[in-house]
Design brief:
Helix 4 packs parallel to helix 7, helix 7 packs antiparallel against helix 8 and helix 8 packs parallel to helix 10. The protein has a domain of 152 residues: Serine Threonine Protein Phosphatase 5, Tetratricopeptide repeat (Alpha Horseshoe), CATH 1.25.40. The chain has 10 helices and 2 strands; from the N terminus they run H-H-H-E-E-H-H-H-H-H-H-H. By secondary structure, the protein is mainly alpha-helical. Strand 1 and strand 2 form a beta hairpin.
C-alpha cells in the first residue's frame, strides 16, 4: 500500500514518466546487423607497389579467370580431380552416360587450352571419358560444327602441351565419329602441318595423320 501511495504522490507532483518509443525498444532488443561504419581510406605507400603481398588478385588490373575456370569454380563441370598415390583420376558426380553432351563436351574441349592445374587434367581426361560412353557417336556428331573451331584453336596454340592435348582430342573424337569428321578436316590439317617442321612433334603428328586416315576411310 505504501508503494501505491508513493506512485500517486509522483503523479500528483506533475512528474511524468515517458514510455520508451518503438525506436528505442528496437535498439535494445534487436541490434542492427549491418550497422554502417565510417570507412577510413589509407593512402598507399610507395613501397606497396613493389610488395607482392599488397597486390589485390581481384583488382581491376588482375587477369580475369578463363571461361572454363569460371565454370569449373561454379560447379558447372560434373567431375572433380581425385589425387591418387600413383596417378590422378576423375570422380564424376553422376554417371557420364547420363550427362548431356551439349554443352559439356564443347566446354571440356575449350578447357584443352588451359595451362594451369587442375584444369589441364580435368579437361583432357573429361573429354576422353565422355567420348567413351555408350552412344557417344550419336551425341557428338551434331556438335562437330562447335567442336572443330575449338580444337583448331588448341592446335594453333603456342604452348606445346596445349597442342598435344588438342591433337590427342582430335584423334579421340575421330575414332568415335569416324567419317563424319572428314568434311571438317580441311580446317584442322593446316595447323597440324605447321608443326611437322618441329622435330619433337614430327613422329607424333605422322601417327595422328595415319589414325585420321584409318578412322575416316578412303575419302580422308
Amino acid at each position: 500500500f505504501s508503494a501505491l501511495g508513493s506512485n500517486v504522490l509522483r503523479m500528483s507532483s506533475g512528474v511524468q514518466v515517458k514510455p520508451k518509443t518503438a525506436v528505442q525498444k528496437s535498439k535494445t532488443s534487436f541490434p542492427l546487423l549491418c550497422s554502417p561504419e565510417p570507412v577510413i581510406k589509407t593512402q598507399p605507400k610507395p613501397s606497396d607497389k613493389l610488395n607482392p603481398k599488397t597486390i589485390d588478385p581481384f583488382g581491376a588490373h588482375s587477369r580475369p579467370p578463363s571461361a572454363f575456370a569460371a565454370i569449373y569454380a561454379k560447379g558447372g563441370i560434373p567431375c572433380r580431380l581425385m589425387h591418387g598415390s600413383v596417378k590422378h583420376r576423375l570422380q564424376w558426380e553422376c554417371l557420364p552416360e547420363t550427362v548431356p553432351f551439349d554443352p559439356l563436351l564443347v566446354t571440356l574441349a575449350e578447357g584443352l587450352r588451359e595451362t594451369k592445374h587442375p584444369y589441364t587434367f580435368v579437361s583432357k581426361e573429361g573429354f576422353k571419358e565422355l567420348l567413351m560412353v555408350e552412344g557417344a557417336a550419336e551425341k557428338a556428331i551434331p556438335l562437330l560444327p562447335h567442336l572443330v573451331p575449338v580444337l583448331k584453336a588448341a592446335l594453333a596454340h603456342s604452348d606445346d602441351e596445349v597442342f598435344q592435348r588438342g591433337m590427342d582430342a582430335l584423334v579421340q573424337l575421330n575414332a568415335v565419329v569416324g567419317p563424319s569428321l572428314n568434311d571438317h578436316l580441311k580446317h584442322l590439317l593446316t595447323n597440324l602441318s605447321r608443326r611437322l617442321m618441329d622435330k619433337k612433334f614430327r613422329e607424333k603428328i605422322t601417327v595422328a595423320l595415319r589414325k585420321l586416315e584409318q578412322y575416316g576411310g578412303k575419302v580422308s
